Amino acid sequence: MPTTYAALLRGINVSGHRKVPMADLRSLLEGLGHTRVRTYLQSGNAVFTTDSGAGEEQLTRELEQAVEEHFGFPVDCLVRDAGYLAAVVDACPFPAAELQGKQLHVTYYSAPVAPGAFADLDPAAYLPEEFRLGDRALYLYAPEGLGRSKLAEALSRPSRTKGVVATTRNWNTVVRLVEMTRD
Hints:
Alpha-Beta Plaits, 2 domains, 183 residues, 4-stranded antiparallel β-sheet
């Protein structure tokens, strides 16, 4: 029986750089043998099914290699199965139903991040912004949005999660990807 996954591409189609048209991404995923391929927005979100038996890490490597070969530049990708995506939504420590999508974000990580990576941050210094660490994910409440978030800037310093790929989605996208895996 096929398994449904979401692919999250990091840092594409931003300010006209590293262009990856979604129609091309869909074709690329289909060329890798995946089915029921759909994309969401222009920021590198795709849902697909596969019965290849490959796990998330292998699917991620295959997609990264195919993207680089096709588009001519490397793109960090994360592939997560539908169950994981739903678990991230279910585990949200913030009252998501009471917030606007732009106020809540999830950063997905390629591997677990040690809680100590953020130990030097003084949570009180960033209030009312808050964060919580989850399973290969970080939840960020930023009432003024990500673009104005000083906490987001502090959390995203590469030295905190050295060697771990990270990509962030707003809550609307997080929820929509779960819905797409169920369609």
